[in-house]
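Hi V.,

You were right to ask for the full record rather than a summary. Here it is.
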Amino acid sequence: MPLASFTSLVGDHGIYAVFALMAAAAVVPAGSELVMVYAGAVASGAFASAHVLLFGHRVDTPVWAYVTMAVAGVLGNLFGATVGWTVGAYGGRPFVERHGRWLHVTPARLERAEHWFDRFGAVAVPLGFAAPVIRSFVAIPAGMFRIGLGRFLPAAAVGCAAFCFGLAGGGWALGRSYDRLHSGLQDAGIAIVAVVVVVAALAIWRVRRSSRLSRRASDPAR
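Predicted structure:
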């Protein structure tokens, strides 16, 4: 789908388009960065023809319009993530290998996802949903690799909230110049993922190091 179609949908249908597009973006690449950045710009009141409507009522306060758009993105992302997790948990690798091309889950991407989960464990879920590029390839592998739904959903909610509120906030601040942020995200996407991976690796190393030191301190003197 052309990028202009995403902005047209959000401009014409507001939170309902944001919910639907972010639900799809949880399992397939569906322009989630552009959707949330543009949703924030709409919430700021930058476009006279686009408004935020909630159950038929117009949200005129820009701050509440921003919150409404961001929450719609989070809820849509979580709904799609639950669907993706269910596909992975109950369809398993045979289903993904057979139908993965429709979900853009190639064997190479599945292998990278497996390494991601092996390296970071449960931390991979919030990090994955908070980062561009890889966020559409987290839910299905999480179900396949047997991360329980009770652990998966809260972790996914953290990452989705960081992503949706952060990008919508950027679009809200920039208004009509929202495309500057979107273009920057496209250019910096790989760099952002690299930074996230490095920060996560350092955090895990520090936790493990602290745990080892604590165990040594608690061991009786020999």
